[in-house]
Design a protein that fits this description.
By secondary structure, this protein is α/β, with parallel strands linked by helices. The chain contains 7 helices and 11 strands.
Length: 213
Amino acid sequence: MKISVVGAHGQIAMLLHPVLRSNGHDVYGIIRNEKHADEVNRAGAKPVICDIEREDDLSGAVGNADAVVFAAGAGPGSGAERKWTVDRDGALKLIDAAHKNGITRYVMISAMNVEEPRGNEVFQVYQKAKAEADKALRESGLDYTIIRPGKLTDDMPRGRVTLAKELEQGEIPRCDVASVVAEVLEEPESIGHQWDVITGDIPIEHAVKKACQ
């Protein structure tokens, strides 16, 4: 399967590329900064340069992929405006590109509890942007899966998670989020689901299959 990953130099995406490659997929990594191309390539994705904030049409960058993954984010140091232009608008542009290119499969990396904004003003904007992007994907008609991790850490992988429609709080290593994303791309029954995910007791493959039931 050919998979195009938007936000390919992000922390989760950089952990995702080698997993997808090991699963036998061709990975194309859409990045804004060409200086990151070598790192993305070493991680296992062919770099594609495209600034999703500046470009209205992402279809050329996405190409004839079988699936797309939205892993982009404005980042914690950015202001409120970029939460809209990256976290929401970038995801919406990818929906449009998927429709234009006949791509049905779309996996979104979002965040838990975004429908109940909390924290400072910028963080609330981030949550609202994510919530609007998730809603748009759910209503897009695409074969979506939305993964909403809890608080992200750089801990070593546990390989075990709790996956459910709604969870309250919890943490999860970024590497385990990447593994969950890779797993849902292998599981057709994950289509049409939105799940919160935190570290838990169930191996990732089994957790995904159980959540699909």
